[in-house]
Amino acid sequence: MKPLFQIIILFAVCLFMSFSPPINDTGDREGVIILEGKYQNRNIYVANPYPENGVGYCTYEVRVNGEIIPDEVHGKAFEIDLKQFKFKTGEKVVIEIKHKNGCAPKVLNPAGLKPKPTFNIESINLDSTGVLTWKTSNESGALDYIVQQFKWNKWVDVGQIAGIGNPQIHDYLFKVQLISGNNKFRVIQRNYEGKIKKSVSVTLESEIPKLTFVYNKRTKEVVFSLPTQFEVHDVYGRLVKRGYGDVVSVSNLEKAEYYLSYDNTTDICNLK
Q1: Which of 55, 146, 219, 246 has the most CB atoms around its CB within 10 Å?
Q2: Mean pLDDT of 79-87
Q3: Other C-beta atoms within 10 Å of 157: how many?
């Protein structure tokens, strides 16, 4: 039984070691922060606090795509210089920031490896059937294109399509819903920090008749003359309903006046 007991002990030790975090040169258990993304011609900046024992700094090693960086990481803050690796824009980057137990460095620009809107519009067109096409170049990362329509005195998101994300010329197409009168569209991209880049707008005068609506008190429904995108706001400007169709159930709304935005206009709808 003794050999079997020794095998069990050896197996338990190996299992413990395989699940235990590694130990660095100071004898502390370590942790690691991993950043993954695409090179965006930006460096990464890190705030580097003291560990719990007050000896040295939190970070003790940084690797970029498996290679230890030569930059100094033993300070209150440091920069991970990605330019020295001569990455091409959009090339995959994996950063490992190894730190001591009980403290963690803070990446000051975590979106530094995320794509930003850089596209150039080569052309943008809208035909009478509602087909919006645009041609772009100089995309530095895969971000969605958001199609916006100007109506109700604001730009409204009406669609979304994935961007390809490299600098070559690309063609995109999206079918939009036209409204009566003047139609105005553009495309935008939003980065991970909420900043946007927008295209020029394109306009088209449609021959669609102006829509109307009626409120049916018996069924508690708003009925449009044609299907349309709509929004319903209360008197305080709060959005209470939105959608697309020719019939809107308002049975769950209180009896009051509302602002009804549809087609290319906003009217007051009295549900009293």
Answers
A1: 146
A2: 93
A3: 10
